[in-house]
Design goal:
By secondary structure, the chain is of the alpha+beta class. The protein has two domains: 90 residues; 219 residues, Bira Bifunctional Protein, Domain 2 (BirA Bifunctional Protein, domain 2, 2-Layer Sandwich), CATH 3.30.930. The protein has eleven helices and nine strands. Strands 1-4-5-9-8-7-6 form a seven-stranded mixed β-sheet, sandwiched between helices. A two-stranded antiparallel sheet has the order 2-3. Strand 7 and strand 8 form a beta hairpin. It starts with a helix and ends with a helix. 29% of the residues are buried. Bound molecules: 3,4-dihydroxyphenylalanine (DAH). The site of 3,4-dihydroxyphenylalanine has 12 residues, from strand 7, strand 8 and strand 9.
Amino acid sequence: MTKETVEELRRTSIASIEAADSLDQLDSIRRGIVGKKGSVTQLLKGMGSAAPELRKELGSLINELKKELEQLAESRREQLARAAMDERLAEEWIDISLPVGAKPALAGRGGIHPLTRVQRELEHIFRGLGFTVVDGPEVETDYCNFEALNIPDTHPARDMQDTFFTTCGHLLRTHTSSIQVRSLQRLSPPLRIVAPGRCFRYERLDASHEHTFYQMEGMMIDRDVNVGHLIYFMRTLLREIFGSEQKIRLRPGYFPFVEPGFELDIWFQGRWLELLPCGLVHPKVLEFGGIDPKEWNGFAFGLGLSRLVMSRFQIDDIRHLQSGDLRFARQFR
Ligand code: DAH
């Protein structure tokens, strides 16, 4: 063994470390040089074969070489790691400053849909009158949508509320009145609830009929409730919505779940507008809900939310409301 042997090993080792082009490759090259069985380690072990007067010098040369090669391998490792990270960043880069939405034309500030806006306003008004806002399912049982509202299987009122049925006998609710039943079952009197929600009917579609529309049901159960209470609450509601006292009239109306039943109309833009069917809760409905009609009674109403929104914003076709057409929706931002 001579100085040349060491120098030769130095040159070949440096070349192979610099040639490594992946971290894995570098690692095995490094082990092949300075690992337990690596070439430099072997050289150290083979010192015995060197001329005795050279041993000391060769020993320190080899040790220095080892250090040098370890440092070189480390800096090559850093280089390769940085390159791998740069490559990953380039591949996985996401421009988080891009606007949401596929087309920049669709971006921009959103707005509250007029239906939601009016619904929230009404909820606010009713909360102020001591009502709780409750919810119910859109897929209903026949019992809650019809039966417990005093509309038995054979009742002609069912004809006016044809709807979509599931194969297991449930249906898409035709009105929010089903939530009256659910509230009577769940809560105990005295109670005041309003229940906004989406309803569905099998309809011939035109400017005022849509298969999907919104209502807001209301119900108050207490002792000795009479039509005067009903009128008081409805007047207050309309004053809040329209901002001033409204001219109203009550006509008799028939709904199997109220007795007496009314149509409440308001005088709007020179004509009577049918807005609020209502009445005193039928004793049978209370009984179905497990409440004693001798002790409790109340009123109920079904506000046509879609219709109210239409008159409020002068929308001439109910089908605009759920068209998803941005040209329509943007007008209410
Ligand atoms: N659920 C009825 C409908 O959709 C409306 C209605 C009428 C609701 C009278 C009521 C009510 O609460 O008292 O046609």
